[in-house]
Amino acid sequence: MKNFLNPARIILIGAIALIPTVGTFAQCKGFVKKQIPKLSPFIHNGQINSSVLLSGDHAELTLTFYSGQTYRIMVTGQETLGDVFFLMKDASKSQLFSSKDQGKTDYWDFTVESTQQLTIEVMVPDVDAPSGLVPSGCVSILVGFKQ
Question: Structurally, how many domains does the chain consist of?
C-alpha cells in the first residue's frame, strides 16, 4: 500500500494552499505602493507596513518616533473594507489622535518633542456583504517625515 501522505504530496498540498495567500499579499503590496506618493510633501521612511484584514478586525503597530522630527502617519484601506480609521496612542495607552474624530481623515501630521514609541491602532468597521461572505482587504500604514 502506498503512503498517502508522502513528503512530495505534503509539499504539493502546502503549495496549493498558499497560492491564494501569496496572491493576496502580492495585491496588498501593490496597493501599498500606490499609496506612497500620497505622503507628499513628506518623505516615505522606506518601511511598508500592511496587512490583509477582515470586516470588524483591528490591528496594532508600535513604532519609534524621534525627537524634533515632523511625521505624517497615513492609514488607508481598500474600498471593500469601508471607512477604516485609526488611533494614535502613547506608551501609557493615552489617545493622542483619532481619525474618526477628525472627519475620517486618512492621515495625521505631528511633531515629536521627545523620542518615544507610539502605537497605531487600525480599526475596520463591520461591513455586511450581500453575498454573506466576510469582506477582506488590504490596509496600509505608511510613515513619512520632513527633512
Answer: 1
